[in-house]
Design brief:
The complex is a heterodimer.
Chain A lengths: L3 H14 L4 E9 L4 E8 L6 H6 L16 H11 L3 E7 L3 E9 L11 H11 L4 E8 L2 E6 H8 L7 H17 L5
Parallel strand pairs in A: 1-5
Antiparallel strand pairs in A: 1-2, 2-4, 3-4, 5-6
Chain B lengths: L6 H14 L13 E6 L2 H5 L2 H14 L4 E6 L11 E4 L6 E3 L4 H13 L18
Parallel strand pairs in B: 1-2
Antiparallel strand pairs in B: 1-3, 3-4
Chain lengths: ~180, ~130
């Protein structure tokens, strides 16, 4: 996993498999505290406290087949290498919140990467799930959601080339406007 | 063109696009669509599944192939990521491994369009150690 947006896509997919109908991604950058926080919250099936603790161990998974389970440990490793940490809070039947913090100016903080691509792929691939993305910096914030996009587009499909490019541009331009870190 | 910075700007683009396209009828009929699933678990993402999926979306549109492209979890072939399952209407699903952009193009050009078999198929009989 080379970028934060790759990690986000991975955690988003966990949320999808947990049966979530609403997934929120909130990125907060704070220069004063030198923090880069990524929160992914879902309303999926959730986990017990015990399972949530084990989820940070490599090769732990609740899947009964094809056991791998490296997504969260890799995110934790990247967060800790960049002077941060990873926390999970979860409640069975209510959902899960994954919070990763990184040192904003830390040399080992992965770049955000292709966040527009992560958002687009998630929205295109999971038509029935509401996905919200919010990004806050000291210069401002922006947010939008899959339902807002769909409302704006009407019956024009999201996966049309011009539309994909327009959404990509919309995200990139807004990230530039709030001086989001690369 | 002005910068796109709001949903209102996006709506303008949508209006331009809408005037040019004729929306497909019965576009949700799964029987008539090529179904493509991209393995998008940790192993897939780390191996470039996002780029593969983007390419598949772009290329199927470019070649006017009626396809629905979604992501799926780990298919158990982590050694061969990115993996892609392709189901052509009326045929059994086929899983391809190591699908980078070059392989994705080959799958579209030769398997989906011409119906030819291409290298890189993961045999149905394959089982992981745990199974």
């Amino acid at each position: 996993m080379r970028t934060i947006s790759d990690h986000i896509l991975d955690i988003l997919e966990n949320s999808v498999r947990a049966g979530a109908t609403l997934i929120e991604v909130i990125i907060t950058e704070n220069k004063f505290n030198d923090l880069y926080c990524v929160k992914i919250r879902d309303n999926g099936c959730g986990m017990t406290k015990e399972t949530a603790e084990k989820a940070l161990e490599p090769f732990f998974t609740t899947r009964t087949t094809r056991k791998v389970g490296l997504g969260l440990p890799l995110l934790r490793q990247n967060a800790e290498q960049a002077g941060g940490s990873l926390e999970i809070s979860s409640e069975p039947g209510k959902g899960t919140l994954v919070s990763a913090t990184f040192g904003l100016s830390h040399i080992d903080r992965p770049s955000l990467g292709d966040m527009a691509g992560t958002f687009l792929i998630s929205v295109i691939g999971h038509d029935d799930i509401e996905i919200r993305y919010e990004h806050q910096t000291d210069a401002g914030s922006f947010s939008f959601s899959s339902s807002e996009l769909k409302e704006a587009l009407g019956d024009v499909p999201l996966n049309r080339g011009e539309i994909r490019e327009a959404i990509r541009e919309l995200i990139m331009n807004n990230l530039d406007l709030i001086h989001a870190s690369k | 063109m002005n910068k796109i910075t709001s949903l209102a700007d996006l709506k303008k683009i949508k209006d331009q696009v809408q005037s040019r396209i004729k929306l497909r009828e019965n576009s949700d009929s799964a029987e008539t669509l090529v179904q493509i699933k991209v393995g998008m678990a940790t192993c897939g993402i780390a191996s470039g599944a996002k780029e593969t999926m983007n390419f598949l979306i772009e290329e199927t549109e470019h070649q006017a192939i009626d396809a629905v492209i979604t992501q799926t979890g780990c298919m158990g072939f982590c050694y061969a990521e990115p993996t892609v399952e392709v189901t052509i209407p009326g045929k059994e699903p086929v899983i391809f491994g190591h699908v980078d952009k070059t392989k994705a193009r080959e799958i579209i050009d030769r398997y989906i369009i011409k119906g030819e078999l291409v290298d890189g198929i993961i045999p149905v009989a394959f089982r992981t150690i745990d199974e």
